[in-house]
Design the sequence.
C-alpha cells in the first residue's frame, strides 16, 4: 500500500515536505505523532490523527506514538486563544497511562520489524537543565524564525488587535522548540525520519526538521493530515455535551454510537473514509446505496458500527444497537433486561427520573397508585388521570402494555431497581426503586 495515495483518496492528506514520498518508497520508515496528556482519554478528534499512524503501519512502516509527559506540562498554543491550565505531575502520569491503553487498541505492538512503540518525552527532558537546553538547542533557531509560525502569529496579532486571545507567554512560545527537540531526539536515538500530525501542527513539525538540519546536518520529513471539521466548519469531535471521548467512563458506548449515527449525510460520506479501514470499493458501494435510500442511513450505520467496535467492542456495539431501538418502540422486555445498567441510564439520561423508596413501591396498592401518588404526581397528577390513560391503552411499563387499572404492582425490576414507564407514544420516565 502506498501511504500517500491511501491518505489522498481518503481525503486525509493536507501537505507533506518535498522528498517525503521518496523516503517512504525507499524502505521501512519510522514515523511518529505526539499526543498531549491533557486528559486521561483521547477523543475522536485525536482518533483522526491516530488513523495516520494506523495507515503508516499498514503501509509497512514503523509507527511511534509519543505521549508528551514533558510537553504536556507546558501546553501547545496551536489553535488556541488562551493559555491553558497546567497539570501537576501525578495527573499527567495518570493521563499518560490512560492514553497508552487506548493507543494499544489501534496499533500493532507485535508485528515484528514494524511493531509500534510508545515513548514519553519526559524520559529525555527530566534531566535536561534550562541552561543546557538553551545552549544545546535554543541557539540553533532565531526568534524571527519562531515568530513566523502561524500558531504564534495568530495569538500575538489577536492580542494586539484586542480580540479574545490572551497573548502568548514565553512558556507556550517555547513549545515549538521543545517539540522540535523531540523530533531531533527521536531522529538521533530511534531512527525516526518522519513526523506526522494534524495540519495545525505543521509549524511545530517543521521546526523539528529544521533543528535536525541545523544541529546534525540531517534530513527529516513532515506530513500532515487535514484537520477534521464539521460541515459548519467548526472543529470535529464535540457534541452538545462536550468532547466525544474514547473512554466509556466519559462517553458511554451508546452515546458514542449515537454520535456517529446522527451525522449528516455529507459528514458521513467524508468521515467513513477517515475513521474506518473499509476499502475504497466497499465505501463507494455503501455511498451509492445510501444515495438510493438516504432515509435508511446506510453510511451512518456502517460508520457507527465500525468505529464503535474498534473503540469499544462488538458486545458494546450490539448493546448500543439494542438500546437505540428502545426509544423507537422496537425493543421488548427482553431487550431492556439485556441492557447493562450504564447503558440503560445512558439511554434514558434525558428523560425524567423518579426515585421511589422500596417500601412505598412494595406497598403500592395498584398500578394506578404507583403511577400517580407513589411517584409524587410526576407521571400522572391524579389516580383518575392514570386510570383513564390505562383504559385507553396509553401506558406501558418495561415495554409491556398495562391493561388493568387495578393490576397489582409485581413488575420485574430491571437491574433489580428500575422501571421504564411510557406514557403515550413519546413520554418516557425512569423510575428508580431504592
Sequence:
Amino acid at each position: 500500500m502506498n501511504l500517500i495515495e491511501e491518505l489522498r483518496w481518503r481525503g486525509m492528506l493536507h501537505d507533506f515536505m518535498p522528498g517525503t514520498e521518496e523516503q517512504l518508497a525507499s524502505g521501512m520508515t519510522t514515523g511518529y505523532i505526539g499526543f498531549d496528556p491533557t486528559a486521561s482519554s483521547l477523543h475522536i478528534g485525536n482518533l483522526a490523527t491516530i488513523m495516520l499512524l494506523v495507515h503508516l503501519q499498514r503501509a509497512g512502516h514503523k509507527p511511534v506514538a509519543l505521549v508528551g509527559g514533558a510537553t504536556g506540562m507546558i501546553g501547545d498554543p496551536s489553535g488556541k486563544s488562551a493559555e491553558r491550565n497546567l497539570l501537576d505531575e501525578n495527573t499527567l502520569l495518570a493521563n499518560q497511562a490512560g492514553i497508552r491503553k487506548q493507543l494499544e487498541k489501534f496499533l500493532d505492538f507485535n508485528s515484528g520489524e514494524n511493531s509500534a512503540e510508545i515513548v514519553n518525552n519526559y524520559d529525555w527532558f527530566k534531566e535536561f537543565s534550562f541552561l543546557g537546553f538553551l545552549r544545546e538547542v535554543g541557539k540553533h533557531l532565531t526568534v524571527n524564525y519562531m515568530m513566523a509560525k502561524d500558531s504564534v502569529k495568530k495569538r500575538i496579532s489577536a492580542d494586539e488587535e484586542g480580540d479574545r486571545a490572551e497573548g502568548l507567554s514565553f512558556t507556550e512560545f517555547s513549545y515549538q522548540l521543545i517539540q522540535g527537540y523531540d523530533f531531533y531526539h527521536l531522529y538521533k536515538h530511534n531512527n525516526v525520519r518522519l513526523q506526522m500530525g494534524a495540519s495545525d501542527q505543521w509549524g511545530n513539525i517543521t521546526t523539528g526538521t529544521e533543528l535536525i538540519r541545523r544541529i546534525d546536518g540531517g534530513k527529516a520529513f513532515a506530513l500532515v493530515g487535514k484537520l477534521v471539521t464539521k460541515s459548519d466548519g467548526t472543529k470535529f469531535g464535540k457534541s452538545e455535551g462536550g468532547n466525544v471521548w474514547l473512554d466509556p467512563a466519559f462517553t458511554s458506548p451508546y452515546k458514542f454510537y449515537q454520535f456517529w449515527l446522527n451525522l449528516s449525510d455529507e459528514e458521513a460520506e467524508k468521515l467513513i473514509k477517515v475513521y474506518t479501514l473499509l476499502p475504497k470499493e466497499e465505501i463507494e458501494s455503501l455511498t451509492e446505496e445510501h444515495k438510493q435510500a438516504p432515509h435508511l442511513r446506510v453510511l451512518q450505520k456502517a460508520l457507527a458500527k465500525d468505529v464503535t467496535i474498534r473503540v469499544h467492542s462488538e458486545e458494546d456495539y450490539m448493546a448500543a444497537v439494542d438500546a437505540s431501538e428502545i426509544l423507537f418502540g422496537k425493543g421488548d422486555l427482553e431487550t431492556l433486561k439485556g441492557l447493562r445498567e450504564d447503558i440503560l441510564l445512558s439511554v434514558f439520561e434525558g428523560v425524567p427520573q423518579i426515585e421511589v423508596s422500596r417500601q412505598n413501591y412494595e406497598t403500592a396498592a395498584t398500578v394506578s397508585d404507583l403511577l400517580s401518588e407513589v411517584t409524587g404526581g410526576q407521571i400522572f397528577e391524579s389516580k383518575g388521570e392514570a386510570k383513564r390513560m390505562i383504559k385507553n391503552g396509553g401506558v406501558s411499563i418495561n415495554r409491556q402494555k398495562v391493561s388493568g387499572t387495578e393490576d397489582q404492582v409485581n413488575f420485574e425490576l430491571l437491574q433489580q431497581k428500575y422501571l421504564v414507564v411510557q406514557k403515550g407514544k413519546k413520554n418516557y420516565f425512569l423510575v428508580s426503586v431504592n
